Amino acid sequence: LEVATKLADPATYDQLEVHYQPIMHLPSGKASALEALIRWRHPERGLMMPDSFIPVAEETGAVVPMTRWLLDEVIRQTTEWAVEGVDVSVGINISACHLSSGTLVADVRRALSAHDLPADHLVLELTETSIAEDPVRGGEQMRELVAMGVRLAIDDFGTGWSTLARLLAMPMDTLKLDRSLLQGVCASDGVDVMSAIVALADSLRLRSTAEGVETLDQLRMVSEAGCDYAQGWLFARAMPAADLGRWMKARV
Ligand code: G
Ligand code: G
Ligand code: MN
Ligand code: NA
């Protein structure tokens, strides 16, 4: 309840922090993209991870104004990096209720017009279930976003196969393979499953990103499977903007 009340108050945004996790382009070995991941620096509870407050914010609807704030902050920061010579695209997680609220297109347009980031440097990550929830209205908004030049990614792919057919009818740019695909599979089977999903992505002209790459073995596996990109603790954890800026600059 306390969490719900606080998240409804924009004054609380001062306590929100955006961390950024690099996403590697495997053929070049370059960190060409980031995923923005929100944290709440709570005065009493310390650093709270999104799993402990995003579901509440989704239930109350507070996630919509919060994401509006996040869009502005992330686009501002990414534009600043571009000016400093760090050219990266950035992914933002979008909740299902934001897609169905009907304001997402306007929110994204406003945030992009406030800064100088090319629209194709912004990737909106949508989960399978949020896309499947309202395919008509959602699809309409997705097409408007794509017309604006924004890119869309399917997040947590592999956790809801029942919605696959409807999903594939949507205008996506990237398929992000859920980290569960890398976990608990014996390496040889794992590569086969991954290869099949990457082949599916290729044939649909989607880029593929493997999530949750923690070890060199897993990196080898996702490379063998033909993934275009990889994200995970092997490369870096999500970090505050200042650290990320240093991390990127040390690699140019
Ligand atoms: O590192 P991590 O614990 O940050 O993220 C856990 C989960 O929270 C992930 O599923 C991620 O998609 C989600 N998440 C992180 N940041 C945001 C955000 O800004 N908005 C939404 N809707 N979800 C987020
Ligand atoms: O659902 P979404 O893809 O938005 O979630 C991103 C989440 O995955 C964040 O919580 C992030 O911290 C976490 N994450 C990123 N890389 C790794 C990794 O290599 N291993 C594990 N276990 N989690 C990771
Ligand atoms: Mn994500
Ligand atoms: Na994911």
From TrEMBL:
Superkingdom of origin: Bacteria
Instruction: Give the EAL domain ranges.
Output: 1-252
Signal peptide range equals none
Listed name of the protein? EAL domain-containing protein
This protein's species is: Goekera deserti
Positions spanned in the full protein: 315 to 566 of 576
